[in-house]
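Here we describe the complex-level prediction in full. Unlike the single-chain runs in Section 2.1, the three entities below were treated as one system.
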Amino acid sequence: MGNKSLGLKRILTFSIGAAAALAVPMLPKYAVTLATSIVIYSIYVSSANLLTGYTGLVSLGQAMFWGSAAYVAAILTTRSAVTNFYLISLIGLLTVIVLSSFFGVLALRVKRLHFMIVTFAFGHVVWCLAMYPMQHITLGYDGIKDIPRPTLGFSLPTDSATGFYYLVLAVAAVCFFVVHRVIKSPFGHALVGIRDNEHRMIALGYNTFVYKYICYMLSAAVAGISGLLFAFFNGYVNPAELHWIWSGDALMIMFIGGVGAFWGPLLGAIAYTGLRYWISSYTMYWFGIEGIIFILVVLFFRGGIAGFIMNLQRKLTNGRAEG
Amino acid sequence: MELPIAISQVLNGIAFGMLLFLLASGLSLMFGLMGIVNLAHGAYFMVGGYVGLTTFEATSSFLLALLAGAGTGAFLGFLTERFFMRRLYGLHGHESILLTFAISLVLSDLSLFLWTGTPRWVDPPSFLDVSFNIMGAFYPAYRLAIILIGAAVFTGLYWFQERTRWGAIVRAGVDDKETVTGLGINILLVFTMVFCLGAFLAGFGGFIGAPVLGLHIGLDVEIIMLALGVVIVGGLGSLPGCLVTCLLMGLSDTLGKVLWPSYSSLTIYLVVVIVLLVKPSGLFGKGN
Amino acid sequence: MEELRVDHLSKDFGAIRVLRDISFSVTSEERRIVIIGPNGAGKTTLFNLVSGELPSTGGSIHLFGRDVTRMPCHRRTRLGLARTFQISDLFPHFTLMENVLLALQAHDSCCYQMLRSRRAYTHLYEKAEDLLKKMRLYEKRDFPIASLSHGETRLTEIILGIAAGPQILLLDEPTSGLTSSEGVWLAKLIRSLLKDITILMIEHDMNIAFDFADRMIVLHQGEIVADGRPEEIRTNPSIREIYLGTFHG
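The structure predicted for the assembly as a whole is:
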């Protein structure tokens, strides 16, 4: 990877960032709203990508963190006088970190497939709790409505689509920056080592449990942030946000975008949201079609969209070298 | 609770457990042999039921409908294994699971398209549309038939697994695929066979359960979750263990719904979680 | 100084006793100990017990005077023990350089660093380059592991083992899969480059084994049947019988 390619990557990142910040808000309102949801989903999926793509831990429990944080935001804003974004985020993050520190210790005791099933079971238990025993708080099946937009302490009007979009963009930038740093760090290098050969990592002297545990909590925190944003965005939260199907969706979007690729989640979120929006206007059978798309990706486009782009790039640069 | 009601509910639980067994046995075998959690199994159950329903409405023959439903299940299982799962053997297990998840989404929406979202019911065959008096409870003969059929299927599977050459091959394959292949046995054929058998039972269960559970969109999700719980708790590779766990799950789900209506789903999964953490290989599984 | 001591170590797999009553010790004066024995004697299992991959059924293991019998695998490495594998166990998606960096990072203070890029830690890169140069693989440092020859992967396997600067190195059949001349070359390389490390090596090639060893331990059916200098082992009639017996049997 030469300096030229690195420079190209930086230019690309910068232009995408600039487009997102400057060009999108000029589009009509429905497009801004769509873009907002894309960014929120991409944060959620990147949390799954950190855990699954980079560390190899396949979890069917990410929705638990998304949904819990969403409920925290919903409950705080509708039941108490708290609307301050920073405070709500703090409480939401704390909730998610407590949950993940507890569940992580238990779930990480088992490997691979069993881990997937355990996270699924944990997620389901939390869903059940929200549906029935905690109904007086979560309002069960009906969910919590009329969630107001948060206040930021300064004059950014989060009530407007554009204002809220900027908030989401800012939070996303922070999240992506942190995830990027982690991936490039020695810690991130070790995570990929664990994914590819945990046995050797242990033999080399790494305490792999600690690495996985920290990664699990970090991934939960990122998922929580996205869930928080979603609650404000959607104005309505119900137990579907905790359901394991939403965890499964995160994995599918991650695959479509490209597992273990940094931009995979964003690409996947764009594809997913765009396709869903477009296809849902023609038919109500979105889930079946999502399934078909996923099957095609897994069978024929194994690296997802990101992999496809990288292959293309490689073919172009090889062609140029030979030509 | 008075005795007649208690007896009814216990029998209901056992009948439900038998239906679960039809689903979970295939799932458990697939997991043990191929390391795959087939999330589409619930969809085979549901689609098998629906196809059986349509056949029954067209021909009025319960038996024909049953065969059609089971056959559909087997066919779907064959398609899944032959054209999708086979390409992913040797790769990460989680991709296979997500693939089956995607297939279940497709099948679910397909069912919605073909049979709409209205819940449907099937009447049991007329000769079984009677009730027996069991200690004061008037219990439908059809549900008793389900219990008997479940026991018969268990016996058949057990005999197959323990007493036949094919069964021995499958058992050996669960323990050590490489050696079985080295012995010249086409392990891929064995995989396909196991897949089809499991899916056959699922489709069978879907239609046979239709007079009891009904048929509705979302049945696939509900039933696969319970079946997964069974496979997790009941451990792998143990057919008797699977049966016992199914009966336990069936009983706790049914009795739970009666005694604590809001919490039944929760209690089952809490049990699953606790068992998993104490003994990750399940109650009856052999340790890894 | 006593570096490794194994007392009455045993290991059962279910009803099968794979290792029984294994006792020996290794001091810092001895540099090259070779463990030989027919297949199934329990040699790799012994390594697995010493490195901590498998828990022992009975007996104890002491490393540098500390009882490590119940210590998890990754912590034993920090005491100065390292181990390589008979079947190369590398990181398939990384380049050679990245493999070595990962091994070096394990015992560095930066191993939990989450926010600074790993490129900032140039001392690791320097160490890695030194190591690769020393082991004659520097030119291949940016090659993916999959493109290395078998001999080069066996060498990489050893590099990963010595990266953290261990005092004792367990080499499990380092010449496995190599031709006999390649094996001789590798053994010579090990002897000349790893002078300051105590090496316990499992070896099948008798020429290499006798040539390399200061001391030999012979394992048969889970027990130590001989432990001494190569000359003693060579002339021991019962050892001959063990090996000749397995040829006939």
